[in-house]
Write a structure and sequence with these properties.
Blueprint (H helix, E strand, L loop, with lengths): L1 E3 L5 H13 L4 E3 L7 H7 L7 E3 L5 E3 L1 H12 L11 H29 L7 H23 L12 H15 L1 H4 L10 H11 L2 H5 L16
Parallel strand pairs: 1-2
Antiparallel strand pairs: 1-3, 3-4
The structure holds glutathione.
């Protein structure tokens, strides 16, 4: 099985962390959607990551579809989403906010990477920042009751999706102007993310310098 994409992508990283937590081994194809767009497009016609190439050659695209496939492989007892019922609904609520915030952060980064300063849509960027801030406020409240994880005693996809989104936020602060929860705005979220990042699966899937979203000489 091969996971396509770099760990700087919050979507690729949530899949990689999940596979590691579940003990599902995978090879990596470190193609970048920026530098290797044609290679990625040969695997996923949308030219997007993550894509998971299964052993039989089937390609699963989109992190939510991949995570659903992984949960199906390990079965309901080990799945990272709870079975149908209120905990699953709560988990999806948190996952959707974390995933949606990651999409808005990526949109903000692309305003910098794909457009000149004159072309940037400032009102749109401000709107994206407001959307991320609103999601972070709700997620911080949810994290206040984490014991130790968002849904109680067991790590779920909600913890993984939110922590990988925040990890990305920390790497793209110069492009988004949104501070990491560690700066004191979102203390409960900061504690939850620190707990996640201390887990071996998160450390194993932390992006190396060669897979960072912004170039070292990035200027906002
Ligand atoms: N909803 C998708 C989002 C994937 C996504 O936006 N990936 C980015 C990299 S972080 C990408 O492939 N961007 C290139 C593009 O959209 O053209 C998922 O959850 O997998």
């Amino acid at each position: 099985m091969k996971l396509v994409g770099q760990f700087d992508s919050p979507f690729v990283r949530r899949v990689a962390v999940s596979m590691t937590v579940l003990g599902i081994p995978f090879e990596r194809d470190r193609s970048s959607v920026m530098r290797n767009f044609e290679d990625v497009s040969k695997i996923n016609p949308l030219g997007r990551v993550p894509a998971l190439v299964l052993d039989d050659g089937m390609v699963v695209v989109d992190s939510n579809a991949i995570l659903d496939w992984l949960d199906g492989e390990v079965g309901p007892k080990r799945a990272l989403m709870p079975p149908p019922g209120p905990p699953r609904t709560k988990c999806w609520h948190l996952v959707a906010l974390g995933h949606g915030a990651a999409e808005k952060l990526v949109a903000l980064v692309y305003e910098h990477l794909m457009r000149t300063p004159e072309q940037r849509a400032v009102p749109w960027m401000n709107r994206c920042r407001g959307q991320v801030d609103a999601a972070l406020a709700v997620l911080d409240q949810a994290a206040e009751g984490a014991d130790p994880w968002l849904l109680g005693g067991r790590l779920t996809q909600a913890d993984i999706t939110i922590a990988t989104m925040i990890g990305f936020l920390g790497m793209v602060e110069p492009a988004t102007g949104i501070a990491h929860p560690d700066d004191g705005h979102w203390p409960h979220l900061a504690r939850l993310v620190a707990r996640c990042e201390a887990e071996p699966a998160f450390a194993t899937c932390y992006p190396p310098e060669s897979e960072r979203p912004l170039p070292p000489d990035f200027k906002p």
